[in-house]
Design a protein that fits this description.
Component of the exocyst complex involved in the docking of exocytic vesicles with fusion sites on the plasma membrane. This protein has 709 residues and is of the alpha+beta class. Helices cover 64% and strands 8% of the residues. The strands form two sheets. It has an eight-stranded mixed β-sheet, with helices on both faces. Strands 9-10 form a two-stranded antiparallel sheet.
């Protein structure tokens, strides 16, 4: 063995011991390695032991391969034997089926012969298959007796299937029912075809020849479809009864053919009998001769009463398309031909629009109204949010248009908007939150407002003639906007993004919202109303940050000039101040890289102007007072500090420097803030003007100990 050859001095016995040791149930790898390292004399022993373990591993792998190959061959041989057995069982089943058919035919022939020999005797088993001709020729008494026996043998159908003189059994037999979706066998049933309905029953487990009621289907609403053979699924046919369908398998092709022929023949006979009944009802009946009366006015009243009855009987419902209308509607609904179904209903309404409402018309209307309810249920299901939301708003156009044609505009509008709300909600939930916040907001706005725009255009197309539905769309748009703002605020404001990021995100949302003006829909005021609370919170939060930072710098203020050290730094500061709107900053620069302003005042100017610029991006009228009050509070912190320092400082040189900073703050910064605010808002701010005037009083009397606040 390979283990013995690579084991050095271990030999075959050492390999066997090693195998048994590794295969033992109590083997612990850590303890084994620890013991081995303690007993080994050096690296050579460990290398030899490693080679033995490696050889054992290779031998085990080869053994596993041989076992897998052997099992695979056995599996192939077993599968071949199963295939042979399946073929033999199929042949045996076919032979048994043929034998059963022969025996049933012989038994039926003997029973029929016995009936001919002795008419007083009925068939011993009423559930033997009967052809249509045999059932028709059996006589009224025999057919009635068979139906009575059926009512006794099938539990639960006596109340649902009352005996009537015109009802008789046409055909019956055993069938196998299969699942329509997975084609799996469900149960064995016995079907009884009568001249006006089809009864399906299941066998009772402990009572031979007894059945339990399962379902009853009127032939008027029953459609029969042949199912193409697809081995091993063969000899099948489908019954369509809205809103369900059932698949049955006959014992062989002959019985399947008989079922299809008998069902079609019975349906035709039923339609012809119904047609004859309607024709007889439509025929004018001779009125009974009234007794002679001497009252002349009574004769005139009778003539007036007879005229409308004659008109009422004049409605012709014997047309072929009217007779077949309920069945045609069932077929259209089953085949999802909604347009065809509504076209048939429109055709019937046009035909009956100027006809009197007679009893036959009422009966026809009752049948048609039932199909209309079924069609409406199917269309409602097509628009339900449980269905697939792919395809956009246009995917709902078919169902919506047919509901509108059926006079269900309000329901169509409600279901359409619910469907679109679910689609928008799903699209927002599927967005992945990744990368920068601004990138996510771009995606969110694109998905939401594009969906809203497509929905609005599709709504305008579908409900062009229903002006009353537009108010519902506006309510839906407001609700959808609230859903969008919830997702927007959660990402922008709840995550404590900077004011500049929040301003950019709100700007993107406003720009997308303006796209809706293309179709005459302006929702800007709604997005303002929904965002005002979050924006107020963001402005106040950022205001507090600026005030705290300014107070901190004020506490460390030494009132010294700034030394920027390099011309590049000075040039950068000039650009920053110019971008803030301070155009005369050069008059405050000195020799070399000196600036005749303190670091506190310069930092305050940049921070205040940055706050104002970002706040103006967020501005709308509801935020006017919040923005103005925040600006006043920020400016007052700096103004109070400068005024206090000017009153308390005793050094003349520092006092002059403080006065120079106060002049820059009052005469340069405050006018720039006031001008920029007026440009962004569109009107001047009286509070900022009052603040600047109060500062002028302080400059006139700098030695006063009175505060401006």
């Amino acid at each position: 063995m390979a283990l013995g050859e690579g084991g050095g001095g271990g030999g075959g016995g050492g390999g066997s011991r090693l195998r048994r040791q590794l295969e033992s149930g109590g083997f612990v790898a850590g303890e084994y390695v620890k013991q081995l390292s303690q007993q080994s004399d050096g690296d050579r022993d460990l290398q030899e032991h490693r080679q033995r373990i490696q050889a054992l591993s290779e031998e085990t792998a080869q053994s596993l391969k041989r076992n897998v190959y052997q099992n695979y061959r056995q599996f192939i041989e077993t599968a071949r034997e199963i295939s042979y057995l399946e073929s033999e069982m199929y042949q045996l089943s076919h032979i048994l089926t043929e034998q059963k058919g022969i025996m049933e035919a012989v038994t039926q022939a003997l029973l029929l012969q016995a009936d001919r020999d002795d008419p007083a005797l009925g068939p011993s088993d009423p559930f033997l298959p009967l052809s249509g001709k045999e059932a028709a020729g059996g006589g009224e008494e025999g057919r009635q007796r068979t139906l009575t026996t059926l009512l006794e043998k099938v539990e639960g159908c006596r109340d649902l299937l009352p005996e009537s003189p015109g009802k008789f059994l046409v055909y019956n037999g055993e069938l196998l029912e299969y699942d329509a979706d997975h084609m799996a066998q469900i149960q064995r049933v016995h079907a009884f075809l009568m001249n006006d309905c089809l009864l399906v029953a299941t066998a009772l487990p402990n009572r031979r020849g007894a059945y339990r009621y399962d379902a009853l289907y009127p032939l008027d609403g029953l459609a029969v479809v042949n199912v193409k053979d697809n081995p091993p699924m063969k000899d099948m046919f489908k019954l369509l009864m809205f809103p369900e369908s059932r698949i049955f398998q006959a014992e062989n092709a002959k019985i399947k053919k008989e079922w299809l022929e008998v069902l079609e023949e019975t349906k035709r006979n039923r339609a012809l009998s119904e047609k004859r009944r309607l024709e007889q009802e439509a025929m004018p009946r001779p009125a009974p001769t009234p007794p002679e009366s001497t009252n002349p006015f009574e004769e005139e009243d009778e003539e007036e009463e007879e005229e409308p009855s004659a008109e009422e009987e004049a409605v012709d419902l014997s047309l072929e398309w009217i007779q077949e209308l309920p069945e045609d509607l069932d077929v259209c609904i089953a085949q999802r031909d909604f347009e065809g179904a509504v076209d048939l209903l429109d055709k019937l309404n046009e035909y009956l629009v100027d006809k009197p409402v007679s009893q036959p018309v009422k009966e026809l209307r009752a049948k048609v109204d039932e199909r209309v309810r079924q069609l409406t249920d199917v269309l409602v299901f097509e628009l339900s949010p449980d269905r697939s939301l792919r395809g956009g708003p246009r995917a709902t156009r078919r169902a919506v248009s047919q509901l509108i044609r059926l006079g269900q505009s309000t329901k169509a509008c409600e279901l359409f908007l619910k469907n679109r709300a679910a689609a928008v909600h799903t699209a927002i939930r599927q967005l992945r939150i990744e990368g920068a916040t601004l990138l996510y907001i771009h995606k969110l706005c694109h998905v939401f407002f594009t969906s809203l725009l497509e929905t609005a255009r599709e709504f305008e197309t579908d409900f062009a003639g229903n002006n009353g539905c537009y108010s519902a769309f506006v309510v839906w748009a407001r609700s959808s906007m609230r859903m969008f703002v919830d997702a927007f605020s959660k990402q922008v404001f709840d995550s404590k993004e900077s004011l500049s990021t929040a301003a950019e995100c709100v700007k993107v949302a406003k720009e997308h919202c303006k796209q809706l003006s293309e179709i005459g829909l302006d929702l800007t005021f709604i997005i303002h109303a929904l965002l005002v609370k979050d924006i107020k919170g963001a402005l106040q939060s950022y205001k507090d940050i600026i005030i705290e930072a300014t107070k901190h710098r004020n506490s460390e203020e030494m009132w010294r000039r700034m030394n920027l050290m390099t011309p590049e730094a000075l040039g950068k500061l000039r650009e920053e101040m110019r971008s803030c709107g301070v155009g005369n900053f050069d008059q405050y620069t000195g020799d070399d890289c000196w600036v005749n302003l303190s670091y506190t005042v310069v930092a305050f100017t940049k921070q205040t102007m940055a706050f104002l610029e970002e706040a103006l991006k967020l501005y709308f009228p509801e935020l006017h007072m919040v923005l103005l009050e925040s600006l006043v509070e920020i400016i007052l912190v700096a103004v109070q500090h400068v005024d206090y320092s000017l009153r308390c400082e005793q050094d003349p040189e520092k006092k002059a420097f403080i006065r120079q900073n106060a002049s820059f703050l009052y005469e340069t910064v405050l006018p720039v803030v006031e001008k920029r605010f007026e440009e962004g808002v569109g009107k001047p701010a009286k509070q900022l003007q009052d603040l600047r005037n109060a500062s002028r009083l302080m400059r006139v009397n700098p030695e006063s100990t009175t505060s401006v606040v």
